[in-house]
Amino acid sequence: MAYVITNTCTKDELCVQACPVDCIHPKQDEPGFAEAPQLYVNPTDCIDCGACVPVCPTNSIFPVDEVPADMAQFTELNAAHFN
Description:
alpha+beta, 83 residues, two-stranded antiparallel ribbon, 17% helix
């Protein structure tokens, strides 16, 4: 997985718009959007481009090897969302 979204995500979808490979879900028009506490990066589809990082207003997106220690659980949560 190249990038991880953490629980400070506000689901504003700016990252979805910036992503060139459509790897961030759920989107507003997808089932489960309202119930999802945050957005998630599909680890299989992410191409490690970083386009999502600078557009995130809450700084909720991290490269997998830079996720703060107190947020490490979000690496597994992002991957689990797609399994």
